């Protein structure tokens, strides 16, 4: 399958205890806060950037970027991935591969290689 899938260095988690998670990553691990939004914070960890989002808890979500989200989603679902969540207004979707890895499939900037 030839798609121009590229990973970003972002990993996202969601938690129902957002305040405690934010405090933990800032204090216990000492990660630098580099982004603060109403429902999400981002921490610089060194090799990756960790985003902690308010919401129903789930495990880590990796971030993969493609030039065409719908085309890549169709190919990946045909290859055995399961659609977990979708937001066409962004556009992006969460997929789980046949091996249990959940990832965000998002739109890659056309200027990126």
Automatic annotation (TrEMBL):
InterPro entries reported for this sequence: Glyas_Bleomycin-R_OHBP_Dase, Glyoxalase_6
Domain Glyoxalase-like: 11-105
Name this protein carries in UniProt: Glyoxalase-like domain-containing protein
Source organism: Dyella psychrodurans
Lineage, highest ranks first: Bacteria, Pseudomonadati, Pseudomonadota, Gammaproteobacteria, Lysobacterales
